[in-house]
Amino acid sequence: MLQHLATLTEGEPGPVVREMAGARWTYFLIPPGSSDGYDWPPGATCFGPAARDQWVGIPAPDGNTYPLSWRCGAPEEDEFVDAELLHGLVLAQLAPAAEGG
Questions:
Q1: Cis preceding-peptide flag for 41 (omega within 30 of 0)
Q2: Pairing relation of β-strands 16-19 and 26-28?
């Protein structure tokens, strides 16, 4: 997913965090509230105000923050992943699997 996003954004996908242990999630940081406008398929989980337990785990810009690390580097102020572009990629990769059941 990240490779496609990086290709479509000329190598600048925005802030992405990876989890190197446990569930090994990849977190795409999108603008606050922007996930509401999209119907995310099974396999994609949005964390935010609607979630029962709200939390944000962000690695430090430098140093060891295992098990989290920046996949694309710490963001600049007001830098986010494009939610619409991410949604399109998620649908392209997860929706066919869900439909094929």
A1: no
A2: antiparallel
pLDDT digits (tens, 9 = 90+) for 54-86: 566 778 888 788 888 888 878 888 899 999 999
Give residue 49's pLDDT: 65
pLDDT for res 75: 85
Torsion of CA 16, 38, 4, 66, to 10 degrees: 20
Comparing CA positions, the residue from 21, 6, 25, 11 lying closest to residue 89 is 6
42: Cβ–Cβ under 8 A, 6 or more apart, which residues? 94, 98
Alpha-helical segments (H) within 1-101? 2-8, 83-100
Entry pTM: 0.79
**What would the two tokens of residue 23 be?**
């569930």
Domain ranges of the chain: 14-32+62-80
Q: Are 66 and 21 in contact (CB under 8 A)?
A: yes
